[in-house]
Amino acid sequence: MSQLKGIVHLVGAGPGEPNLVTLRARELIASADVIIYDQLVHPELVKWCRAECEVIFAGKTAGCHTVPQEEIEALLVKHAQAGKRVVRLKGGDPLIFGRGGEEARALAAAGVAFEIVPGVTAALAAGAYAGIPLTLRHTSSALVFLTGHEDPAKPGPTVDWRSYGELKNTTLAIYMGMGRLRHILAELVAGGLSPKTPAAVVQWASLGRQRSVAGTAATLADLSEKAGLAAPAVIFVGEVVKNHEAIDWFERLPLFGRRVAITRTRDQNSELRDKLEALGAEVLELPLIRVTKDVSREGIVEILTELGQYDWIVFTSANGVRIFFDAFFKGFPDVRALGGLRFACVGAATAREIERLHLKVECQPATATGESLADALIATGSLDHAKVIVVCGNLNRDTLVKKLEQDGRAIVDRLPLYRTERTDLARDPVADDFRTHGADAILFASSSAVQSFHEQAQSLQLAKDAKRPLAGSIGPQTSETMMKLGMPADFTAKQPSLDALVAALVKKLK
Ligand code: SAH
């Protein structure tokens, strides 16, 4: 709708670890019409967007082609002028070595509204995650952010490294300096820096693949080369680096440096993901299925206007609730249009989604199956001549509907609103990471996860030199399915719980 005013949000995506973005960033990603993101933005962040959101990658492609800066600026202006809410996601903070300033100027010049949302810049994350306090009483009272990258094609101010060698009680944090590390350190020393000054490189800060080495201004270039460290990394120079040894907490976590793949949808996975990340693992979520709206069908509007005739509405998934109310509120601005409809559902997540709207769930069975929901509904004794509507997807809850029909008291209608589909893993960036680099382990927390993994195994085939993951299972039933499908478990949880699964993984990888 072009009469709406567009806007561009220049948003800091933080250093890598998705949980380090601001609440504002998360909220803007979730409501954007268009997202334009860079190389160092974690692919997980982009997945928070709406299904309808247009996602544009502006980083380097496999052929090393990057979208020219002017083209990006023109793109921002174009989409905003078309009335879109555009989120321009940039690694770290948009205004620190990120060309956010140039983009803001282009937007201002074009008369486009914009907002700038700061982010955790790489040096701050690298300091925190490598145990290097960037300032410290009695040791460092100043912090300088520098760029080591000097584009030979672009005349501009070059860094006078020698003058920074003279600074006392100062921490230097150097971005984009890995290509010239040896030169930079030599110049600092030539400028008066003691060659004994502690110095460190921190690569991929905040992520499971973080690596760091510490030495002195004299030794760091050799140490870093030997360890094979390269961009993206921050170089620190200053006495504060000494603390690394004592307070390097992150690289000591039990699953630090381990890549662990997990295999269901985001809603189902977040608890497992949190547990693994708390132990330092890098988690790869393989999105095997996706739920999409299927509200184009005729008759839905009709049913919605006839909602008042129903006694019960039944939901079997949180997605069903979300999609139903999306459609409902498009037709009716007032929740009272639901009339006296009573709510029944399966699953705690489904109930939470209904209760979020301050609606009461009157029937929810203890076991989360369609069959028990039918039993629970029948047990309410309210089904004589009642009308029940079941919100469902393409994977039908036949047991539920059949059981209610067999009972014969209620009239049961279906309201198919969504489809559960296989995702196209060919284009998924996380799946791509998995195919290329593999993982240390892959965890299965249910038979259905094993099943869907098996169905998509073709598109998840690992590259020749990718790491082959060990397969972990949550319990006997899952292990049995794995065995049947020819992918036997390498380790199994002692009890069927996520905690026990994670414990078994830690033990196995020790
Ligand atoms: N705007 C970004 C910086 C972009 S320049 C920010 O505020 O962080 C790109 C440089 O940032 C990289 O070459 C590297 O020096 C640094 N960098 C970005 N992410 C990093 C990470 N996770 N770990 C270490 N350095 C990182």
Short description:
This protein is an alpha/beta fold and 510 residues long. The protein has helices at 23-31, 43-46, 69-81, 100-110, 122-129, 161-165, 181-190, 220-227, 244-247, 266-278, 300-305, 318-331, 348-355, 370-379, 398-407, 429-437, 447-455, 476-484, 498-509, and strands spanning 7-12, 34-37, 54-57, 85-90, 113-117, 142-147, 170-175, 198-203, 211-216, 233-237, 259-262, 282-285, 289-293, 312-315, 342-345, 361-363, 387-393, 411-422, 441-444, 470-473, 491-492.
Count of alpha/pi helices: 19
Number of strands: 21
Q: List segments where confidence is low: pLDDT < 50 over at least 5 consecutive residues.
A: none
**By helix and strand content, what is the structural category?**
alpha/beta
Oligomer state of the chains in this structure? single chain
Q: What best-fitting shape do the alpha-carbon axes yield?
A: globular
Could you tell me how far the N terminus lies from the C terminus, measured between alpha carbons in angstroms? 56 Å
Q: Which compounds are bound in this model?
A: S-adenosyl-L-homocysteine
Tell me the strand percentage band. Answer: 15-25%
Largest sheet, described in full?
6 strands, mixed
Average pLDDT metric = 90
Query: If strands are numbered along the chain, what order do they take across the biggest sheet?
Result: 13-18-17-14-15-16
Give the CATH architecture of the largest domain. 3-Layer(aba) Sandwich
CATH class of the largest domain: Alpha Beta
* Residues in helix, %: 25-40%
Number of domains: 4
Task: Fill in the CATH topology of the largest domain.
Answer: Rossmann fold
